[in-house]
């Protein structure tokens, strides 16, 4: 049960967002990410991973501005418990491979999917 303000509600599907900020001079190899890292993500998370979405930053909010994030990965799980149970020692494989495609420190957000 999650509480925001005075309202409490049951948390349903969970989205884990891994956001890679568009930092000056940062490296992000989208080809490696898609063709090598995502298959590892699928193996590590296995059946716990309901679906995934990958975004590549195109632009910022104004004309001619840089995107806030160079890439974003959104991973969906049935519940927070499913996500936490799948977050075992094998997760270290994902962290270990990250320097192969990026030198950007990601921002990770775990969210309740309130509505889709």
Protein architecture, described:
There is one protein chain. With 116 residues, the protein is α+β, with helices and mostly antiparallel strands. It has one domain (12-58, 66-112): Alpha-Beta Plaits, CATH 3.30.70.100. The protein is 26% helix and 32% strand. The protein has three helices and six strands, in the order E-E-E-H-E-E-H-H-E. It has helices at 30-45, 80-86, 91-97; strands at 2-4, 7-9, 14-21, 49-56, 69-77, 107-112. The chain has a four-stranded antiparallel beta sheet with strand order 4-5-3-6. The longest helix is centred in the first third of the chain and has 16 residues, at 30-45. The model has no long low-confidence stretch (mean pLDDT 90).
Strand content: 25-35%
User: Biggest sheet, strands in spatial order?
Assistant: 4-5-3-6
Q: Shape from CA axes? A: globular
Structural class: alpha+beta
Looking at CATH, which topology would you report? Answer: Alpha-Beta Plaits
Mean pLDDT: 90
Kindly provide the radius of gyration, computed on alpha-carbon positions and rounded to a whole number of angstroms: 16 Å
Distance between the termini: 19 Å
* Oligomerization category of the chains in this entry: single chain
Low-confidence stretches at least 5 residues in length (pLDDT < 50)?
A: none
Task: Write a compact overview of the structure shown.
The protein has 116 residues and is α+β, with helices and mostly antiparallel strands.
